[in-house]
Amino acid sequence: MFKEYDVIVVGAGHAGCEAAAAAANLGSSVLLITMNMETIAQMSCNPAMGGVAKGQIVREIDAMGGYSGIIADKTTLQFRMLNKSKGPAMWSPRTQNDRKRFAEEWRLALERTPNVDFWQEMVGSLLIKNNTVVGVKTALGVEIYGKAVVLTNGTFLNGIIHVGEKKFGGGRTGEKAATGLTEQLTELGFEAGRMKTGTPPRIDGRSLDYTRMEEQWGDENPGRFSYTNVTLPKDQRCCWITYTNENVHETLKEGFEKSPMFTGRIKGLGPRYCPSIEDKINRFAERERHQIFVEPEGWNTCEIYVNGFSTSLPEDVQYKALTQIPGFENAKMFRPGYAIEYDYFPPTQLSLTLETKLISNLFFAGQINGTTGYEEAASQGFIAGINAHQKVNDAHELIMKRSESYIGVLIDDLVTKGTEEPYRMFTSRAEHRLLLRQDNADIRLSPIAHKLGLISDERLAIVNQKIANSDAIVAFTKEQGVQMSEANSLLESLGTAPLNQNVKLFSVLSRPQVGIEDIRKVSSSFDQLLNTFDQETVEQAEIKIKYESYFEKENEIVNKMQKMEDKSINPDFDYNQLVSLSKEAREKLLKIKPRTLGQASRISGVSPSDISVLMVHISK
Ligand code: FAD
C-alpha cells in the first residue's frame, strides 16, 4: 500500500505540520500520519498566535519559508503589536485567530504542497534496525517504511484528562490518547517524564453582558506576521477584558479539595507562566482580582475563550465561579476547562538538529520535547523537518545559532540545559534579543533559507532590496542637514531641547522623542524620499538610526562570543581522559555531547575552570 518515504512525520499538530511542509518543500517524499485528519493543526488551547517572544518566532519561521505566519495572517480576527511603547526588541506581534479556519487553512496548505501524503491512524511503534529508525508500525499493524521519522506527538502520549475528581484517557478533549510509543522508547533506553497543562472553559457568547466589560480592539493599522503578500481579512473583531473578584476566588476555593492539582493526583509539572486560576489564587493570595481576556473563537461562532481562567476544578465549581465574574452573570458554558497530563522526553537526549542521540534518523519536535505553545512547537517541527530531509540526502545539517534567532535560543536551551517544567519562550531567554527583533527576521534568516532552497531568488531579492532601501534612508539622514529655524518649534512641541546650530537629520532623529514621521514634516526632501518606500522599510531605517550604536556594541559581543561557538568539539570526544574535569562536568559533557565550546559553557554544572581544561585539549 505504501512506498518507502524519505520522511515520515507522526502527528499533525503545529510541529508536525511545519515538519511535513519543510521536508516536502525541500524535495522529500513525506507521509504525514495523524490520529485524526479532522484535527490537523488544531489549536488545543488559546485561538491565538504570537505574543511576547513567540511573535518573533512566528516571524522567523515565515522568514525561512514556513507556513505558520501565513496561516495566522489569513485567519486573523484581531492583530496587535504588543509592547509598542517599549524598545523595538520588545515589539511582539500577536493575532487572535479563527480556530476552525486556522486548522482548515493548514490542511489546505499541506494538501497543496506537492510530496505530502496523508494517513489517518495511530502509530504504535517504530521500526528500528541497527539503531536506526526505518519506519513505523500503526495500530492496525501496517508497517510503513521511511528513511527518517519525526515524532511530534504533542500532549497525546499516555495523556490523562482531569476535571475535578474525574479522570480519563485522552490526548485532548474528545480525542484518544496515544499508547505504545513511550513504552517502546523507554525500552530502547530513552528517559521519559510527565508534564501537565490546562485549558479554560468555553462559553456561549450570546449569554454574556459585554456592557460590563472593557472593549479591547486591535491595532488601527494592523500589521502581519508574514513577509509575503498574504491578503489579510478586511475587518477585525473586538475582544473584552473583565476581572475576577473575591467572591469568585472564594467559590473556586470551595473546589480545592476536589482539585486534581492540590490532591496530588496530577504528578506532572505545569507551565509556570501560564498557571491555572486555582494556582494563581493559591500562589498570589494577596491579589484581589485577576484579569480575564474574553476572546472570540471565530468569525462564524458565538463561542468564547476565557483567557486567564484555565482550570481543572469540578465543572460545577467552574460554572458557579464564572457566573460571579462581571458580564458572566448569565453565562452558559459550552465546554468545561480541564487539565491534561502527558509523557515527554527530556530534550537533552537530542542533538542540536533535533535528531535523537540514541537512534539515528529519528527526530523529536514540539511538546514531546517538554515545550509548551504552538510557536515553540512549530519552530522545532520546521527545523526537524529540514534536518530530516538533509540527513537522508547526506546534506549538511542546519543548526540555528543563539545570536541569529529565537529558534536557535529555544533549541540550544532545550538540548543543552534540558527542562523539567513546560518550556515557553521569553525575550529574557535571548542574550542577544536586541538583534533578534520581529522587524528583521527576514534580514537575519532569509539568506539561510535561500541557501537551503526553501525560499525563491525573488523572495531573497525583496529582502536585499529592503536592506538597500533602508540603508539609503539612513545614508540620506547622515548627509542631509536640518535648518535650526525649521526644526526648533517642532522639537519644542515634542518636549526636547531646541537646536543651537544646523545639524544632520540623523542627529535629530537619534533623539528618543523625535520620530521619523515628525521630522519628514520639516524636511520636504526627506519627505519626498520616504514617499518612495513602503512603511516597513521606513520603520526599518528608523530603528537603524535610533539604535545604531547599541547594535554595534551588541554585534561586537556576538563576534567575541563567536570564537567560543566556532571551537567545535568532536561528538565522540572522550571526556573520561580529562582527569582535571570535575566529576559533575564530565558526567554532563558525556550526556549532552556539546558540539562547540560555547555550548559546553552553557551546560549547568560545567564551570569556567572545566571550560579552560577543555579549551586546552581542544586546541591541541
Ligand atoms: P499537538 O498540537 O498536541 O499535536 C499532536 C498531534 O499528534 C495531534 O495531531 C495528534 O493527533 C497526533 N498524534 C499524537 N500521537 C500520535 C500517534 N501515536 N500516531 C499518530 N498521530 C499522533 N500551550 C500554551 O502555550 N499555553 C497554554 O496554556 C496551553 N494549554 C494547553 C492546554 C491543553 C489542554 C492542551 C492539550 C494544550 C495546551 N497547550 C498550551 C499546548 C499547545 O497546544 C501545544 O504546545 C501545541 O499544540 C503543541 O504542538 P505539537 O505539534 O507538539 O502537538
Give a summary of the structure in a few sentences.
This protein is α+β, with helices and mostly antiparallel strands and 620 residues long. It is 36% helix and 18% strand.
Would you write up a description of this structure?
Homodimer. Heterotetramer of two MnmE and two MnmG subunits. Residues 545-616 form the tRNA uridine 5-carboxymethylaminomethyl modification enzyme C-terminal subdomain domain. Belongs to the MnmG family. By secondary structure, the chain is α+β, with helices and mostly antiparallel strands. The protein has 20 helices and 22 strands. The strands form five sheets. Strands 1, 2, 6, 7, 8, 9 and 20 form a seven-stranded mixed sheet that branches. It has a six-stranded antiparallel sheet with strand order 14-15-16-17-13-18, with no helix packed on it. Strands 11-10-19-12 form a four-stranded antiparallel sheet, with no helix packed on it. Helix 1 links the parallel strand 1 and strand 2. Helix 11 packs antiparallel against helix 12 (457-479). The radius of gyration is 26 Å and the shape is globular. The site of flavin-adenine dinucleotide has 38 residues, from helix 1, strand 2, strand 12 and helix 9.
Keywords:
620 residues, alpha+beta, seven-stranded mixed β-sheet, six-stranded antiparallel β-sheet, 20 helices, 18% strand, binds flavin-adenine dinucleotide
Which helices and strands appear, and what pairs or packs with what?
Elements lengths: L4 E6 L3 H12 L4 E5 L13 E3 L3 H10 L4 H7 L1 E7 L9 E6 L1 H13 L4 E5 L2 E7 L2 E7 L4 E9 L8 E4 L2 E4 L11 H7 L5 E7 L2 E3 L9 E3 L22 E5 L2 H9 L22 H7 L7 E6 L6 E5 L7 H8 L10 E3 L2 E7 L17 E3 L9 H19 L13 H12 L23 H12 L4 H23 L1 E2 L1 H10 L9 E2 H5 L6 H4 L4 H7 L4 H32 L16 H10 L4 H5 L6 H12 L1
Parallel strand pairs: 1-2, 1-9, 2-6, 9-20
Antiparallel strand pairs: 3-5, 4-5, 7-8, 8-9, 10-11, 10-19, 12-19, 13-17, 13-18, 14-15, 15-16, 16-17, 21-22
Helix pairs in contact: 1-9, 2-9, 2-11, 3-4, 6-8, 11-12, 12-17
Bound molecules: flavin-adenine dinucleotide (FAD).
